[in-house]
């Protein structure tokens, strides 16, 4: 994940929390129906970054990381995230998720949607054990996730496409990461000021991380990004560098040609795809997108200012450096 723990004791503590979370995820998705259990465990078993439980675990170190509700809070966040992935794969008609067949391709769209709903229900059930404030926060976070998905689905309409895209990422990605960091502070017993700082950091670093993934899809090789370069371009997904390129009024031949290719929609022709990818990699639009990622990463760092100095804060700061540098 690009975290530099520096302190071995902090790393050992976080790893222990994540190991317990992993066990509890498998317990949390169990159903009386073996088929539902199998389908619900599908993405749990596929693994993943566990970024949201990670932020819960680190956030708890601004209080007591061994507090009894830290692990259930992390499980709520990861189950909510996993539920969205089942739904996303249906909407995107994805065939693969985390290197395994997606639930919709393995069982059908209807099953994938219903399993996602089941995971949302399980997350809400566990959140109820955390208290009414946790239920309220999880529900509000879920509402933001849905708003973001709706906004992405209907498009910018009369809004600026770049501003719309950044709003979608804040709603779809930043919101859940913000609540994850907030839960770490809340259930670790951090002060209200420190908990608010963690939530602000989470939202901003979440947007930065998603934007950096957009850039990796263009600028990296498949070994670094985990997928074939230019996948978003081929599928017609309007990521930040593409939006910047389309909005550019640069009149040089390369920029003009790039806008011509991109404005036609998904770039499925292999020759045009290779040409567009090459032009994007050398474009001012990619440079501008890198600057945007760095701006968000530095904003996230600034939101850590109210937190006490120490290894937990340094670990969160190191993530800002990683995100700012991974697409350079």
Automatic annotation (TrEMBL):
Keywords attached to this Swiss-Prot or TrEMBL record, sorted alphabetically, are: Magnesium, Metal-binding, Transferase
Q: Which cofactor does it need?
A: Mg(2+)
Per the UniProt entry, the Enzyme Commission number(s) are 2.5.1.-
Keyword Transmembrane helix among UniProt keywords = no
Which GO molecular function annotations are given, in alphabetical order? transferase activity
**Pfam families on file:** polyprenyl_synt
Q: What class of enzyme is it?
A: transferase
Q: Which InterPro entries match?
A: Isoprenoid_synthase_dom_sf (IPR008949), Polyprenyl_synt (IPR000092), Polyprenyl_synt_CS (IPR033749)
Q: Identify the domain of life.
A: Bacteria
Similarity comment: family membership: Belongs to the FPP/GGPP synthase family.
Q: State the name under which the record lists this protein.
A: Polyprenyl synthetase family protein
């Amino acid at each position: 994940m690009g975290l530099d723990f520096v302190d071995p004791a902090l790393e050992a503590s976080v790893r222990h929390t994540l190991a317990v979370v992993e066990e509890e995820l498998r317990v949390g998705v169990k159903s009386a129906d073996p088929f539902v259990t199998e389908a619900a465990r599908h993405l749990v078993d596929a693994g993943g970054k566990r970024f949201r439980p990670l932020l819960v675990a680190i956030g708890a170190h601004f209080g007591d990381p061994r507090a009894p509700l830290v692990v259930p809070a992390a499980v709520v966040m990861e189950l909510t995230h996993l539920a969205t992935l089942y739904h996303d794969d249906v909407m995107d008609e994805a065939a693969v998720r985390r290197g395994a067949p997606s639930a919709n391709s393995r069982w059908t769209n209807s099953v994938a949607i219903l399993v996602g709903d089941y995971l949302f229900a399980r997350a809400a059930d566990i959140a109820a054990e955390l208290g009414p404030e946790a239920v309220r926060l999880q529900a509000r976070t879920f509402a933001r996730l849905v708003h973001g998905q709706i906004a992405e689905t209907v498009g910018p309409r009369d809004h600026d496409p770049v501003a719309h895209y950044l709003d979608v990422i804040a709603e779809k990605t930043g919101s859940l990461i913000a609540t994850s960091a907030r839960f770490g502070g809340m259930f670790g017993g951090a002060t209200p000021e420190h908990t608010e700082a963690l939530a602000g950091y989470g939202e901003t670093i979440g947007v930065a991380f998603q934007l950096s993934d957009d850039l990796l899809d263009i600028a990296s090789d498949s070994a670094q990004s985990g997928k074939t370069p230019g996948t978003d371009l081929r599928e017609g997904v309007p990521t930040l560098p593409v939006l910047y390129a389309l909005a550019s009024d640069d009149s040089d031949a390369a920029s003009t040609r790039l806008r011509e290719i991109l404005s036609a929609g998904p770039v499925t022709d292999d020759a045009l795809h290779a040409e567009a990818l090459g032009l994007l990699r050398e474009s001012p639009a990619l440079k501008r997108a890198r600057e945007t990622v760095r701006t968000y990463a530095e904003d996230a760092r600034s939101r850590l200012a109210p937190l006490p100095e120490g290894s937990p804060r340094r670990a969160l700061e190191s993530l800002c450096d990683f995100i700012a540098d991974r697409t350079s």
